[in-house]
Amino acid sequence: MVTSPSVFQGARNAAPCSQENRRPARVPTAVAVPGAPGGPATFVGGMTGPNIATRVGAAFARRRPASPPPDAPPEDAQPEDTPPDAPNPADPRPATEPSATEPPAAAPSASSGGPSVAPAPDTALAPDTAPDPDATPAPGTTPAPSATTGAGPRRPPLARALAGLRRHWLAAALLAAGLVLRALAVAAYHPALIYVDTLKYLYGASPGSEPFGYTVALKIVLAVGDLGAVAVLQHLLGLAMAVTVYVVLLRRGVPRWAAALTTAPVLLDAYQVQMEQTIMPDVLFEAIVVAGLAVLLWRPVVTVPFATAGGLVLAASATVMQLGVILVAPALIYVLAVGGGWRRVLSGSVALVLAFGVLILGYCGASYARDGHFWLARHQTLTGRLMAAADCATLQVPPAAKRLCPTPAQQALGPDWLEHSGQSPLFTPSLPRNVKRGLINDLTTAVLGQQELRVLGSIARDSVRLFALTREETAGVTPLGRWQFQAGYPAYPPWVNVCAAGSYSPQNCMLAQQAVQKRVAPVSDLLVRPGGPIVVGVQRQAFGAFHASTLRPGYGGPAQVDLPLAKFLRAYQLDGGYTPGPLLVLCTLAGLAGSLVLLRRRLPARTRLLGLACLLFTGTAIFVLFAPDVYQYSWRYELPAVITLVPAGVLGAATLLSLRGAGRPSHGAPATAEQPPPE
Q: What is the pLDDT of residue 335?
């Protein structure tokens, strides 16, 4: 009878499990095959000795490196720099005899219940096949240099750049299209587009009404350039926002094609491009918000340094537009949702809030030293919103206050007109300022106490205008034409006037333009001019006298318009060159659904990473887009949707798809979804 020695060797090396569960060892018997003298022995279990040897040999081969080439040194020879206690790869004992104190680690399987690992962006997008590092090179060939050792020749920069373009071709194509649109806008309007509020930052009109962060940025740029340089820098910020959103989504595991399409609204939306061409703080505000979100999302966990940096960046947005002061809320919610143990949550939250608060308080201190007010800017009131929603016929107020209540025709002009126009009944000049202020307070208090449902309904109606199928002029809303390209240079008399070329008087030009505006554009205040010297009318205080002057020569000179390019940009914008409302509806629903996924207790790591990013973008969109609607609605305040709501929708869809994919069984075993342990 022939017996394989490996069987008895395995029996001697078998470790006993326990005294209670010990099984009696059963040694298989071997039976010689008749008629095959000296042939292989067949065991009762149905396996021949060579088969056992083959499987044992395969096990050794899996634990040993691949065979070296013929010219390699012997296996038992170790390199000179090998430590004395390093194991000899030729010795099979470490591979076959596990330590008695450390059990061998089980090989992971696709159906194991361990936590899922979020793939790197490249692997999540399109997994590339890589050569096996353990593969044996063919005889007579030179092994390829290892990427980890840095050996071998490096590709030239141009080749690497071309490879990157091929890999990210869709994002590169969209970026090129966005660059072309911005180049056309710069060429169409010189030196840049000037709006009514631009005078606050260039000439200090209505002091205290806005933070002075954008004013400081303008002074830095205008020290070396003109308004055209400011517009170019704002266009570059628009492109940079698209690249940043693209990179952040890739790092979170979004496919390359989906991440590229996410940048299409910020790159191709004509309203975004028009705002970048206008001297207004909105683009700088958007860029700071994107930078703050990128800092918080750059790593899977929010460490104290990243929480501090994110808080400082988001707080900087409040020095540009006062709306940024509410961004601490979604950022704090995100840090709490990331988790990772109470110590990490507490330290990250405290670092974020302290950094945010220190910068805000520091700015307020600088404001107090500058103009005697400890604030970001003058607080905007609800007077316009309340008066536009009031039913003056049923409102119970003193007769003197009721005389200030607007008529339905005046209410149709909207909250902005009621609060800021000198023709509003709220600012009749026949009453002393203190008396008028008391009567307005009586009106607003009565509306809040007696007609609060009308106010809430008015806010709700304005909040859903963002999702409209088309963008059209609407009664009661700030005129949409202010944020559209015009077939000429837009003027807003008496604040911004474009005079005829030649000899002119700034004061006479302003008065003449104002007379035309009252006749042809009493509501929109918008006149379209062919070009010429720009005259600005500056008010040092609300409803004060206008002081006319020609735009400073250092700001860029007279207005010039390339009419064919301007007409092309206007046609592109009016014929669908904007982010459609139904798409924003889908993004809102997907963002909310992706955020709610985090309420599940057990999630794959990749799903959790996507859901957390979705939560931050969705929360930021809710606060930034809907908070201004409490005061008044303007399409200008809906522009941040392209940098917050669209990424939130893409991340929400990716979260739901990853959760669905993780729930599918793999290799016949049920898949599990576990939350990754705190790092």
A: 97
